[in-house]
Amino acid sequence: MSMASLCGSGGTARTSQCMAYLGAIVTLLFACDGEGAWRCYQEAMAVSVFACSEEGTAAQMLMDAYRSEDDQVVRKAVASCQTLKFLDNKVARLAMRLPQGTTKQVAASLGEAAGGGYAGTLAGGGGKGGDPGGPYFKGNVLDYGTKGGGGGAADTRAAQEEEEELL
């Protein structure tokens, strides 16, 4: 049963749902379960309230950071994300201790869960149009304020399909 079906339609329930999804993603990343984190992220992004929320942006930032396969990028993303600090106290503490284990191993399991082509695409050179790279999806799905807008699981799939066509 998905988390979306467990939460009601009230405003507080929506906020709790978003925080629960982000907390689950953080916990799975802390446990070095990239595949589980990816599946939870995909389920969460299918919920429009989460996809448009600050928690959704934070989750996408974490996925992108792990995608880079660089511990420093993950640490920087965690340090710059205020939303992580508003999670449940224990989960927020876990988030501040990310990354755990080998970032490359987690990125590889993210790639496997996403059907390949996900892990390592930023490390090898970056975004669309000859960009040197950055913390955004190839195809400009997520921007962190530097490129065009983005967000949502549909945009993520479109960007991955576009990347596969280029390869």
Automatic annotation (TrEMBL):
Residues 148-167 are annotated as: Disordered. InterPro entries: TPR-like_helical_dom_sf. This is Uncharacterized protein. The lineage of its organism: Eukaryota, Viridiplantae, Chlorophyta, core chlorophytes, Chlorophyceae.
